[in-house]
Amino acid sequence: MSPSGRSTNSSAPLRTRSRPLTALIALATTIGLALTLLTATAAPAVAAGIPGPTTASLEAADGPLATASYTVPRPRGYGSGTVTYPTARGSYPGVVLMPGYQGTQQNLKWLAPRLASWGFVVINVGTNTLTDDPESRGRQISAAGSQLLALGKAPGNPLSGKLNGTLGAAGHSMGGGGVMAALRDDPRFRAGVPTAPYHPNGNFSSVTEPTFFLTCQSDPVAHGDTFAVPWYTSMSGAEKLYIEVPGDHLCPMTGYGDKAKQGKWIVSFFSLWLRADTRFGPFLCGPARDADKNDTSLVTRWMDTCRF
Question: How far is residue 101's CA from residue 134's CA, in Å, rounded to a whole number?
Answer without folding.
Answer: 9
